[in-house]
Protein backbone atom coordinates (compact mmCIF):
# COMPACT_ATOMS: atom_id res chain seq x y z
CA UNK A 1 0.00 0.00 0.00
CA UNK A 2 2.86 2.37 0.75
CA UNK A 3 4.48 1.61 -2.59
CA UNK A 4 1.16 2.15 -4.35
CA UNK A 5 0.68 5.45 -2.55
CA UNK A 6 4.16 6.60 -3.57
CA UNK A 7 3.56 5.65 -7.21
CA UNK A 8 0.24 7.51 -7.21
CA UNK A 9 1.89 10.65 -5.85
CA UNK A 10 4.67 10.38 -8.46
CA UNK A 11 2.03 10.71 -11.18
CA UNK A 12 1.83 14.40 -10.31
CA UNK A 13 5.56 14.83 -10.94
CA UNK A 14 5.56 13.30 -14.41
CA UNK A 15 6.39 15.80 -17.17
CA UNK A 16 6.38 13.46 -20.14
CA UNK A 17 4.29 10.57 -21.39
CA UNK A 18 7.00 7.91 -20.72
CA UNK A 19 7.40 9.21 -17.15
CA UNK A 20 3.63 9.10 -16.71
CA UNK A 21 3.51 5.49 -17.92
CA UNK A 22 6.34 4.54 -15.57
CA UNK A 23 4.55 6.04 -12.58
CA UNK A 24 1.27 4.40 -13.67
CA UNK A 25 3.06 1.05 -13.87
CA UNK A 26 3.95 1.43 -10.22
CA UNK A 27 0.29 1.81 -9.32
CA UNK A 28 -0.15 -1.79 -10.36
CA UNK A 29 1.61 -2.70 -7.12
CA UNK A 30 -1.59 -1.73 -5.33
CA UNK A 31 -3.44 -4.37 -7.31
CA UNK A 32 -1.13 -7.03 -5.90
CA UNK A 33 -2.35 -6.18 -2.41
CA UNK A 34 -5.67 -7.82 -3.25
CA UNK A 35 -3.99 -11.20 -3.56
CA UNK A 36 -2.12 -10.56 -0.32
CA UNK A 37 -5.30 -9.76 1.58
CA UNK A 38 -7.06 -12.85 0.21
CA UNK A 39 -4.22 -14.99 1.56
CA UNK A 40 -4.12 -13.09 4.86
CA UNK A 41 -7.84 -13.06 5.62
CA UNK A 42 -8.43 -16.70 4.64
CA UNK A 43 -6.01 -17.80 7.39
CA UNK A 44 -8.21 -16.39 10.15
CA UNK A 45 -11.44 -18.23 9.33
CA UNK A 46 -12.53 -21.87 9.03
CA UNK A 47 -13.71 -23.17 5.68
CA UNK A 48 -17.38 -22.69 6.49
CA UNK A 49 -16.86 -18.93 7.03
CA UNK A 50 -14.21 -18.11 4.44
CA UNK A 51 -16.72 -17.30 1.70
CA UNK A 52 -18.41 -14.58 3.73
CA UNK A 53 -15.10 -13.15 4.94
CA UNK A 54 -13.59 -13.03 1.44
CA UNK A 55 -16.84 -11.63 0.07
CA UNK A 56 -16.58 -8.71 2.49
CA UNK A 57 -12.96 -8.19 1.45
CA UNK A 58 -13.92 -8.26 -2.22
CA UNK A 59 -16.61 -5.64 -1.67
CA UNK A 60 -13.69 -3.21 -1.56
CA UNK A 61 -14.17 -3.06 -5.34
CA UNK A 62 -16.71 -0.39 -4.48
CA UNK A 63 -13.74 1.96 -4.19
CA UNK A 64 -13.58 2.11 -7.98
CA UNK A 65 -17.20 3.26 -8.13
CA UNK A 66 -16.66 5.83 -5.38
CA UNK A 67 -13.69 7.17 -7.31
CA UNK A 68 -15.84 7.56 -10.40
CA UNK A 69 -18.27 9.67 -8.38
CA UNK A 70 -15.86 11.75 -6.30
CA UNK A 71 -12.76 12.12 -8.48
CA UNK A 72 -14.45 14.44 -11.03
CA UNK A 73 -15.60 16.74 -8.20
CA UNK A 74 -12.12 16.87 -6.70
CA UNK A 75 -10.59 17.42 -10.12
CA UNK A 76 -12.85 20.43 -10.74
CA UNK A 77 -11.85 21.93 -7.38
CA UNK A 78 -8.14 21.01 -7.18
CA UNK A 79 -7.10 19.74 -10.60
CA UNK A 80 -6.16 16.19 -11.53
CA UNK A 81 -2.99 16.47 -9.45
CA UNK A 82 -5.19 17.02 -6.40
CA UNK A 83 -7.00 13.76 -7.09
CA UNK A 84 -3.75 11.78 -7.21
CA UNK A 85 -2.35 13.46 -4.09
CA UNK A 86 -5.48 13.00 -1.97
CA UNK A 87 -5.89 9.38 -3.03
CA UNK A 88 -2.19 8.72 -2.35
CA UNK A 89 -2.43 10.27 1.11
CA UNK A 90 -5.54 8.24 1.90
CA UNK A 91 -3.86 5.00 0.82
CA UNK A 92 -0.78 5.78 2.93
CA UNK A 93 -3.00 6.51 5.95
CA UNK A 94 -4.79 3.18 5.50
CA UNK A 95 -1.41 1.41 5.29
CA UNK A 96 -0.32 2.93 8.60
CA UNK A 97 -3.66 2.09 10.21
CA UNK A 98 -3.42 -1.49 8.96
CA UNK A 99 0.11 -1.84 10.35
CA UNK A 100 -0.90 -0.55 13.77
CA UNK A 101 -4.16 -2.48 14.14
CA UNK A 102 -3.37 -5.96 12.77
CA UNK A 103 -1.03 -8.84 13.54
CA UNK A 104 0.50 -11.73 11.63
CA UNK A 105 -1.72 -14.67 10.79
CA UNK A 106 -1.64 -17.58 13.30
CA UNK A 107 -0.02 -20.20 11.06
CA UNK A 108 2.83 -17.81 10.18
CA UNK A 109 3.45 -17.15 13.87
CA UNK A 110 3.47 -20.89 14.54
CA UNK A 111 5.95 -21.58 11.70
CA UNK A 112 8.26 -18.90 13.05
CA UNK A 113 8.03 -20.37 16.56
CA UNK A 114 8.97 -23.79 15.23
CA UNK A 115 11.74 -22.39 13.03
CA UNK A 116 10.15 -23.67 9.80
CA UNK A 117 11.78 -22.21 6.72
CA UNK A 118 9.61 -20.38 4.14
CA UNK A 119 8.31 -22.51 1.28
CA UNK A 120 10.56 -22.13 -1.80
CA UNK A 121 9.14 -20.13 -4.68
CA UNK A 122 9.05 -23.04 -7.14
CA UNK A 123 7.19 -25.20 -4.63
CA UNK A 124 4.57 -22.48 -4.25
CA UNK A 125 4.17 -22.42 -8.02
CA UNK A 126 3.55 -26.16 -8.40
CA UNK A 127 -0.27 -25.88 -8.26
CA UNK A 128 -0.14 -23.79 -11.44
CA UNK A 129 0.51 -27.03 -13.32
CA UNK A 130 -3.08 -28.03 -12.56
CA UNK A 131 -5.58 -27.27 -15.30
CA UNK A 132 -8.12 -26.57 -12.57
CA UNK A 133 -6.27 -23.36 -11.62
CA UNK A 134 -6.61 -22.07 -15.17
CA UNK A 135 -10.26 -23.05 -15.21
CA UNK A 136 -10.77 -20.90 -12.12
CA UNK A 137 -8.88 -18.16 -13.95
CA UNK A 138 -11.34 -18.33 -16.84
CA UNK A 139 -14.20 -17.99 -14.37
CA UNK A 140 -12.60 -14.87 -12.90
CA UNK A 141 -11.77 -13.51 -16.34
CA UNK A 142 -15.51 -13.33 -16.86
CA UNK A 143 -16.95 -12.48 -13.44
CA UNK A 144 -14.32 -9.85 -12.59
CA UNK A 145 -12.67 -8.93 -15.89
CA UNK A 146 -15.94 -8.56 -17.77
CA UNK A 147 -17.44 -6.69 -14.81
CA UNK A 148 -14.63 -4.12 -14.89
CA UNK A 149 -14.78 -3.97 -18.68
CA UNK A 150 -18.52 -3.23 -18.64
CA UNK A 151 -18.06 -0.55 -15.99
CA UNK A 152 -15.57 1.15 -18.33
CA UNK A 153 -17.54 0.48 -21.52
CA UNK A 154 -21.05 1.38 -20.38
CA UNK A 155 -20.71 5.18 -20.76
CA UNK A 156 -19.48 4.78 -24.35
CA UNK A 157 -22.19 2.20 -25.07
CA UNK A 158 -25.04 4.28 -23.64
CA UNK A 159 -23.92 7.40 -25.52
CA UNK A 160 -23.48 5.56 -28.81
CA UNK A 161 -26.39 3.11 -28.70
CA UNK A 162 -29.01 5.24 -26.93
CA UNK A 163 -27.84 8.80 -27.43
CA UNK A 164 -27.58 9.62 -23.72
CA UNK A 165 -25.43 12.54 -22.63
CA UNK A 166 -22.08 11.64 -21.11
CA UNK A 167 -23.02 12.77 -17.58
CA UNK A 168 -26.11 10.54 -17.46
CA UNK A 169 -24.21 7.61 -18.96
CA UNK A 170 -21.44 8.05 -16.40
CA UNK A 171 -23.90 8.09 -13.51
CA UNK A 172 -25.50 4.86 -14.72
CA UNK A 173 -22.06 3.23 -14.98
CA UNK A 174 -21.20 4.35 -11.45
CA UNK A 175 -24.56 3.11 -10.15
CA UNK A 176 -23.86 -0.23 -11.85
CA UNK A 177 -20.54 -0.58 -10.03
CA UNK A 178 -21.67 0.23 -6.48
CA UNK A 179 -24.45 -2.32 -5.81
CA UNK A 180 -22.75 -4.99 -7.90
CA UNK A 181 -19.66 -4.68 -5.70
CA UNK A 182 -21.67 -4.88 -2.49
CA UNK A 183 -23.47 -8.00 -3.69
CA UNK A 184 -20.11 -9.74 -3.51
CA UNK A 185 -20.81 -10.08 0.21
CA UNK A 186 -24.03 -11.92 -0.64
CA UNK A 187 -22.06 -14.19 -2.95
CA UNK A 188 -19.63 -15.04 -0.18
CA UNK A 189 -22.41 -15.80 2.27
CA UNK A 190 -24.24 -17.93 -0.31
CA UNK A 191 -21.02 -19.82 -1.06
CA UNK A 192 -20.72 -20.74 2.62
CA UNK A 193 -24.38 -21.69 2.95
CA UNK A 194 -25.08 -23.44 -0.36
CA UNK A 195 -21.60 -24.20 -1.71
CA UNK A 196 -19.40 -22.27 -4.12
CA UNK A 197 -20.08 -24.75 -6.93
CA UNK A 198 -23.82 -24.14 -6.78
CA UNK A 199 -23.29 -20.38 -6.73
CA UNK A 200 -21.10 -20.67 -9.82
CA UNK A 201 -23.93 -22.50 -11.59
CA UNK A 202 -26.32 -19.68 -10.62
CA UNK A 203 -23.80 -17.14 -11.87
CA UNK A 204 -23.13 -18.73 -15.23
CA UNK A 205 -26.72 -19.72 -16.03
CA UNK A 206 -28.02 -16.27 -15.09
CA UNK A 207 -25.23 -14.61 -17.07
CA UNK A 208 -25.89 -16.77 -20.13
CA UNK A 209 -29.53 -15.66 -20.13
CA UNK A 210 -28.67 -11.97 -19.60
CA UNK A 211 -25.90 -11.80 -22.21
CA UNK A 212 -28.06 -13.65 -24.75
CA UNK A 213 -30.86 -11.11 -24.36
CA UNK A 214 -28.43 -8.17 -24.38
CA UNK A 215 -26.62 -9.43 -27.47
CA UNK A 216 -29.73 -9.34 -29.68
CA UNK A 217 -29.41 -6.23 -31.88
CA UNK A 218 -32.25 -3.95 -32.85
CA UNK A 219 -33.85 -5.71 -35.81
CA UNK A 220 -36.63 -4.77 -38.23
CA UNK A 221 -38.78 -7.49 -39.78
CA UNK A 222 -41.13 -7.57 -42.74
CA UNK A 223 -43.74 -10.33 -42.70
CA UNK A 224 -45.83 -10.96 -45.78
CA UNK A 225 -49.31 -10.80 -44.33
CA UNK A 226 -52.65 -11.63 -45.90
CA UNK A 227 -53.40 -8.00 -46.65
CA UNK A 228 -49.83 -6.96 -47.40
CA UNK A 229 -46.46 -6.60 -45.68
CA UNK A 230 -46.42 -6.27 -41.89
CA UNK A 231 -43.51 -4.28 -40.50
CA UNK A 232 -42.32 -4.55 -36.90
CA UNK A 233 -39.11 -3.97 -34.95
CA UNK A 234 -37.54 -5.75 -32.00
CA UNK A 235 -35.44 -3.48 -29.83
CA UNK A 236 -34.52 -3.01 -26.19
CA UNK A 237 -35.10 0.41 -24.66
CA UNK A 238 -32.65 2.07 -22.32
CA UNK A 239 -34.67 1.20 -19.18
CA UNK A 240 -34.90 -2.58 -19.76
CA UNK A 241 -31.28 -2.52 -20.94
CA UNK A 242 -30.18 -0.87 -17.70
CA UNK A 243 -32.19 -3.30 -15.58
CA UNK A 244 -30.77 -6.30 -17.43
CA UNK A 245 -27.19 -5.02 -17.12
CA UNK A 246 -27.70 -4.54 -13.38
CA UNK A 247 -28.99 -8.11 -13.11
CA UNK A 248 -25.90 -9.30 -15.01
CA UNK A 249 -23.71 -7.33 -12.58
CA UNK A 250 -25.48 -9.01 -9.66
CA UNK A 251 -24.70 -12.49 -10.99
CA UNK A 252 -21.10 -11.48 -11.69
CA UNK A 253 -20.70 -10.32 -8.09
CA UNK A 254 -21.98 -13.64 -6.78
CA UNK A 255 -19.44 -15.38 -8.99
CA UNK A 256 -16.53 -13.19 -7.92
CA UNK A 257 -17.00 -14.32 -4.33
CA UNK A 258 -17.59 -17.97 -5.28
CA UNK A 259 -14.37 -18.20 -7.30
CA UNK A 260 -12.26 -17.10 -4.35
CA UNK A 261 -14.17 -19.39 -2.01
CA UNK A 262 -12.82 -22.30 -4.08
CA UNK A 263 -9.15 -21.39 -3.69
CA UNK A 264 -8.51 -21.89 0.08
CA UNK A 265 -10.60 -25.07 -0.06
CA UNK A 266 -8.68 -26.71 -2.92
CA UNK A 267 -5.27 -25.09 -2.27
CA UNK A 268 -5.05 -24.25 1.46
CA UNK A 269 -1.23 -24.18 1.38
CA UNK A 270 -0.93 -22.23 -1.86
CA UNK A 271 -3.62 -19.56 -1.56
CA UNK A 272 -1.19 -16.78 -2.47
CA UNK A 273 0.17 -18.21 -5.71
CA UNK A 274 -3.16 -19.54 -6.97
CA UNK A 275 -5.10 -16.41 -5.99
CA UNK A 276 -2.39 -14.32 -7.62
CA UNK A 277 -2.71 -16.07 -10.97
CA UNK A 278 -6.52 -16.05 -10.85
CA UNK A 279 -6.53 -12.35 -9.96
CA UNK A 280 -4.00 -11.58 -12.68
CA UNK A 281 -6.12 -13.24 -15.36
CA UNK A 282 -9.19 -11.40 -14.08
CA UNK A 283 -7.33 -8.10 -14.18
CA UNK A 284 -6.20 -8.80 -17.74
CA UNK A 285 -9.86 -9.28 -18.63
CA UNK A 286 -10.61 -5.77 -17.43
CA UNK A 287 -7.84 -4.49 -19.68
CA UNK A 288 -8.30 -6.66 -22.77
CA UNK A 289 -12.09 -6.77 -23.06
CA UNK A 290 -12.78 -3.01 -23.50
CA UNK A 291 -10.23 -2.94 -26.33
CA UNK A 292 -11.86 -6.03 -27.84
CA UNK A 293 -15.30 -4.42 -27.54
CA UNK A 294 -14.12 -1.45 -29.60
CA UNK A 295 -12.47 -3.75 -32.14
CA UNK A 296 -15.67 -5.77 -32.55
CA UNK A 297 -17.65 -2.58 -33.06
CA UNK A 298 -15.33 -1.73 -35.94
CA UNK A 299 -15.41 -5.22 -37.45
CA UNK A 300 -19.08 -6.15 -36.95
CA UNK A 301 -20.63 -2.69 -36.81
CA UNK A 302 -23.23 -3.64 -34.18
CA UNK A 303 -23.32 -2.11 -30.70
CA UNK A 304 -24.43 -5.35 -29.07
CA UNK A 305 -21.35 -7.21 -30.35
CA UNK A 306 -19.73 -6.79 -26.91
CA UNK A 307 -22.49 -8.87 -25.35
CA UNK A 308 -22.15 -11.45 -28.10
CA UNK A 309 -18.55 -11.90 -27.01
CA UNK A 310 -19.52 -12.13 -23.34
CA UNK A 311 -22.21 -14.70 -24.18
CA UNK A 312 -19.62 -16.89 -25.92
CA UNK A 313 -17.22 -16.46 -23.00
CA UNK A 314 -19.66 -17.34 -20.22
CA UNK A 315 -21.20 -20.20 -22.21
CA UNK A 316 -17.71 -21.69 -22.65
CA UNK A 317 -17.03 -21.32 -18.92
CA UNK A 318 -20.35 -22.97 -18.01
CA UNK A 319 -19.81 -25.93 -20.34
CA UNK A 320 -16.22 -26.44 -19.17
CA UNK A 321 -17.23 -26.23 -15.52
CA UNK A 322 -20.09 -28.68 -15.91
CA UNK A 323 -18.06 -31.34 -17.70
CA UNK A 324 -15.13 -30.89 -15.31
CA UNK A 325 -17.46 -31.42 -12.36
CA UNK A 326 -19.02 -34.48 -13.98
CA UNK A 327 -15.56 -35.90 -14.63
CA UNK A 328 -14.55 -35.38 -10.98
CA UNK A 329 -17.77 -36.97 -9.77
CA UNK A 330 -17.31 -40.02 -11.95
CA UNK A 331 -13.70 -40.33 -10.81
CA UNK A 332 -14.72 -40.09 -7.16
CA UNK A 333 -17.83 -42.28 -7.54
CA UNK A 334 -17.09 -44.77 -10.36
CA UNK A 335 -20.40 -46.52 -9.64
CA UNK A 336 -22.25 -43.59 -11.25
CA UNK A 337 -23.80 -44.82 -14.47
CA UNK A 338 -26.31 -42.08 -15.14
CA UNK A 339 -27.34 -38.61 -14.07
CA UNK A 340 -30.19 -40.09 -12.03
CA UNK A 341 -27.76 -42.14 -9.94
CA UNK A 342 -25.84 -39.11 -8.73
CA UNK A 343 -28.21 -37.69 -6.06
CA UNK A 344 -28.59 -41.07 -4.32
CA UNK A 345 -24.85 -41.73 -4.31
CA UNK A 346 -23.96 -38.23 -3.13
CA UNK A 347 -26.59 -38.47 -0.40
CA UNK A 348 -25.19 -41.77 0.79
CA UNK A 349 -21.64 -40.39 0.72
CA UNK A 350 -22.70 -37.38 2.74
CA UNK A 351 -24.46 -39.55 5.31
CA UNK A 352 -21.36 -41.67 5.80
CA UNK A 353 -19.07 -38.68 6.23
CA UNK A 354 -17.24 -39.21 2.92
CA UNK A 355 -18.55 -36.04 1.31
Describe what you observe in this structure.
This protein has one domain (2-349): MFS general substrate transporter like domains (Growth Hormone, Chain: A, Up-down Bundle), CATH 1.20.1250. Helix 2 packs across helix 11 (271-300) and helix 7 runs antiparallel to helix 8 (166-194). By secondary structure, the chain is mostly helical. The longest helix has 40 residues, at 62-101. The chain is 79% helix and 4% strand.
Quick recap of the structure?
With 355 residues, the chain is mainly alpha-helical.
> What is the overall silhouette?
globular
Please identify the oligomeric state.
Answer: single chain
| Count of strand segments | 2
Report the biggest beta sheet as strand number plus sense, adding barrel if it closes: 2 strands, antiparallel
What ranges have pLDDT less than 50 throughout 5 or more consecutive residues?
Answer: 337-355
Number of domains: 1
State the strand order across the main sheet.
1-2
Cα radius of gyration in angstroms: 23 Å
Report the order of strands and helices: HHHHHHHHHEEHHHH
Helical proportion, percent range: over 70%
What distance separates the N and C termini?
A: 41 Å
User: Number of DSSP helices?
Assistant: 13
CATH class identity: Mainly Alpha
CATH architecture: Up-down Bundle
- Specify the CATH homologous superfamily: MFS general substrate transporter like domains
Rounded mean pLDDT score: 83
What structural class results from the helix and strand content? mainly alpha
Strand residue percentage: under 5%
Would you give the CATH topology? Growth Hormone, Chain: A
